[in-house]
């Protein structure tokens, strides 16, 4: 697909941009450009442009605003040790994007077009990498139904867009352990639902329990399964791993209710290479507490693109709290985090071919 480049009439001045890049935070600063590709049923994907980032004009009847046909991805471009730029497993994001599209009755986009769109944006906004240590360019590809139509059926028109947001080190000093709240009255997903799709609605549904977690003095909420309210699923946007003292690591299985994280998949491979036995199996909230208390469980980690690998320190519920290990980052959590960040930044040998140089 040919991408047309539209010149930016007034790009951000270099000094203003560099000042912003010294402390970018997360999700509030955006680069100058965006990629837009249109889809119309019968015509397919067309009109790919790399142009100035600007507000969209939408018909108020656009079906995304009513029936929420929307999916997204979250990925990062990293500056390498040698100064070059790279993506981490972008073909996995492209594949998952299409899996999400299937579930939401949206058109698939060819994987090479998805990746090319991301590459084009990174190329045009290559001066938007944060100068801070641990910084990266967070990329947000997304697709939504743009057809103006109020009937309930899959839309016939869509837009695929990629925007970029410079991101600082998610954690400024060290990696603090998170305190998590066990969701009581809410679930995130049910079998047969949309839990495995990266769609905005899952996040909308997680906001009330997340706010409840904050009110309880926690950072994040952990969801249990919808049927028995017993099996641990995941956090609002991160997958979980439970590290046992006998060298086994448990992570909840992909049964359709949790998001198949690319970080999760990468960690499973790295753990197995460490000689640990990873078991994808159900693990209950009661077992978690019992294993922490008996000393059988050493560490719990949460993982996702934004925060990479994060220790879970304390778990709270109306029945009380329990603290994992010393409440800080465990040995394996720290080691894996360093290994993965090292691969992403070109410091550690990429024996898996996970890094795509740009
Ligand atoms: C995106 C996401 C994750 C993490 O996926 P990564 O590919 O590792 O970034 C985990 N859970 C949910 C609900 C997510 O949306």
From TrEMBL:
Molecular function in Gene Ontology: branched-chain-amino-acid transaminase activity
Q: Which CDD domains match?
A: BCAT_beta_family (cd01557)
Q: Keywords, A to Z?
A: Amino-acid biosynthesis, Aminotransferase, Branched-chain amino acid biosynthesis, Pyridoxal phosphate, Transferase
**What's the Enzyme Commission number for this chain?**
2.6.1.42
Gene Ontology biological process terms in this record: isoleucine biosynthetic process; L-leucine biosynthetic process; L-valine biosynthetic process
Lineage top rank: taxon: Bacteria
Which pathway does it serve?
Answer: Amino-acid biosynthesis; L-valine biosynthesis; L-valine from pyruvate: step 4/4; Amino-acid biosynthesis; L-leucine biosynthesis; L-leucine from 3-methyl-2-oxobutanoate: step 4/4; Amino-acid biosynthesis; L-isoleucine biosynthesis; L-isoleucine from 2-oxobutanoate: step 4/4
Q: Name one Pfam family in it.
A: Aminotran_4
Q: Which InterPro entries match?
A: Aminotrans_IV, Aminotrans_IV_CS, Aminotransferase-like, B_amino_transII, BCAT-like_C, BCAT-like_N, BCAT_family
Q: Which cofactor does it need?
A: pyridoxal 5'-phosphate
Chain positions found as N6-(pyridoxal phosphate)lysine:
198
Q: Which reaction does it catalyse?
A: L-leucine + 2-oxoglutarate = 4-methyl-2-oxopentanoate + L-glutamate; L-isoleucine + 2-oxoglutarate = (S)-3-methyl-2-oxopentanoate + L-glutamate; L-valine + 2-oxoglutarate = 3-methyl-2-oxobutanoate + L-glutamate
Record function comment? Acts on leucine, isoleucine and valine.
Known NCBIfam families for this protein? ilvE_II (TIGR01123), PRK13357.1 (NF009897)
Q: Which family does it belong to?
A: Belongs to the class-IV pyridoxal-phosphate-dependent aminotransferase family.
Record protein name field:
Branched-chain-amino-acid aminotransferase
List the source organism: Pontixanthobacter aestiaquae
């Amino acid at each position: 697909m040919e991408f047309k480049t539209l010149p930016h009439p007034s790009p951000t001045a270099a000094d203003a941009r560099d000042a912003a890049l010294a402390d970018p935070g997360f999700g509030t600063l955006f680069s100058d450009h965006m990629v837009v590709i249109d889809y119309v049923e019968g015509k397919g994907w067309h009109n790919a442009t790399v142009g100035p980032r600007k507000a969209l004009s939408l018909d108020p009847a656009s079906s995304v605003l009513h029936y929420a046909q929307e999916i997204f991805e979250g990925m990062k471009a990293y500056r390498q040790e040698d100064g070059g730029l790279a993506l981490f497993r972008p073909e996995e994001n492209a594949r998952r994007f299409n899996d999400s599209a299937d579930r939401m009755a949206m058109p698939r986009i060819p994987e090479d077009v998805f990746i090319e769109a991301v590459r084009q944006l990174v190329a045009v906004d290559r001066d938007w990498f944060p100068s801070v240590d641990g910084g990266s360019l967070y990329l947000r590809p997304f697709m939504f139904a743009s057809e103006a139509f109020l009937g309930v059926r899959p839309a016939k028109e869509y837009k695929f867009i990629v925007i970029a947001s410079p991101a600082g080190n998610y954690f400024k000093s060290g990696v603090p352990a998170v305190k998590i709240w066990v969701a009581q009255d809410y679930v995130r997903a049910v079998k047969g639902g949309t839990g495995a799709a990266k769609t905005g609605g899952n996040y909308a549904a997680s906001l009330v329990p997340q706010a409840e977690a904050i009110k309880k003095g926690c950072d994040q909420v952990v969801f249990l399964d919808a049927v028995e309210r017993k099996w641990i699923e995941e956090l609002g946007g991160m997958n979980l791993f439970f590290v046992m003292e006998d060298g086994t690591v448990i992570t909840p299985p992909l049964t359709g209710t949790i998001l198949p994280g690319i970080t999760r998949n990468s960690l499973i491979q790295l753990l197995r290479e460490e000689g640990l036995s990873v078991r994808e199996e159900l693990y209950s909230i009661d077992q978690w507490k019992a294993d922490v208390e008996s000393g059988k469980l050493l560490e719990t980690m949460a993982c996702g693109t934004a925060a990479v690998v994060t220790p879970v320190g304390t778990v709270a519920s109306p029945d009380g709290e329990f603290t994992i290990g010393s409440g800080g980052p465990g040995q394996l959590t720290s080691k894996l985090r360093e290994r993965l960040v090292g691969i992403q930044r070109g410091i550690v040998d990429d024996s898996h071919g996970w890094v795509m140089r740009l």
